[in-house]
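Margin note: ligand = 1,3-dihydroxyacetonephosphate.
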Amino acid sequence: MARPVRVVVLGSGSWGTTVAGLAAQNTPTLVWSRSSDTAAEINKEHRNSRYLGDRELPADLRATDDLIEAAHEADVLVVGVPSHAVRGTLDRIADEVRAWVPVVSLAKGLEPGTRLRPTEVISQCLPGHPVGLLAGPNIASEIADGLAAASVVAMQDESVASALQPLFASKVFRVYRNTDVLGCELGGVLKNIVAIAAGMAEGLGVGDNTRAMVLSRGLAEMIRLGVAMGAQPRTFSGLTGMGDLIATCMSPASRNRRVGEAIARGLSVEEAVAELGQVAEGVKTAPTVMELAREYGVEMPIAAEVEAVVAGRRTPTEAYRGLRRRAPGDEEDLV
Ligand SMILES: NC(=O)C1=CN([C@@H]2O[C@H](COP(=O)(O)OP(=O)(O)OC[C@H]3O[C@@H](n4cnc5c(N)ncnc54)[C@H](O)[C@@H]3O)[C@@H](O)[C@H]2O)C=CC1
Ligand SMILES: O=C(CO)COP(=O)(O)O
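Resulting structure:
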């Protein structure tokens, strides 16, 4: 009998640990943590208190602080570190991962400097491997609590995607497939910036109509840049686009939204990020997205205001005033 597929997740933050917990219910799974204390806590107490509080993890989820050991074990490699850490982590194991092992990114940001998406960074570090991502409206704490949700494995090769789906799925976690890797990945990246705007709106005490305007016009910006870069417009009305945008903008647990709210309360960006103690990818990604918007010649007024706020050039109140300066054009003009 063939031995089961072994999943290895790199990164033991809130989402890396949660995805490892999902996989461990289906197949032998190992999570790598750069913290030996966290690895020991997962192994001995089946918890990751720093990121997931008292939530109990599957007893057979194993953890290690040895990156090389983790790389050797992988039949499927899941990259769950933040976008800025993907290259540094994978460079250390480029010669250790077996050829053809599929690699699945969880990261929702862009690499600062290169402007590359995480799957592009992965392809540079691990050439020749099938590379894709798992994304959707997936607030980690809710999924760790066992609440129902859905996600998407995006891979160019549908047969690899089909093989990956059951590794992460459960009765309450539905995993779809999509071959539009670019569109799915950009959805997760861009919604974080709109979520910072939604958080600022929350902190400023706006009404529901304003919230809905930020989401809808934010989605229009996501589609505009995505299509200019070559993504399928339809992808943005699915789980990885509108779905993730709604979850992240609405959830008080979203780190990006919380950063926006904290800035509107008067904290500096640095103070807001420090208060959070977890990654809010939209903060680092906003300037990179505006570079892409300029390169592709697309207008992204909401993202531009968010970028100005995180760079300290505007207050949230000024940013919302700034949005009013632009004359409304044709609503259908998405591209
Ligand atoms: N938390 C969530 O609900 C979701 C998060 N994501 C995405 O997943 C990615 C990971 O996020 P989280 O687990 O939530 O972050 P987190 O802030 O909870 O944890 C980050 C993890 O990465 C590790 N890390 C940070 N810098 C590192 C470095 N230079 N080298 C190695 N390890 C490093 C930290 O020690 C920690 O274990 C992000 O791109 C995020 O946008 C995607 C879906 C849901
Ligand atoms: O991507 C997420 C939900 O799908 C998590 O969003 P935050 O990083 O804002 O918490």
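The CA atoms of residues 179 and 233 lie 13 Å apart.
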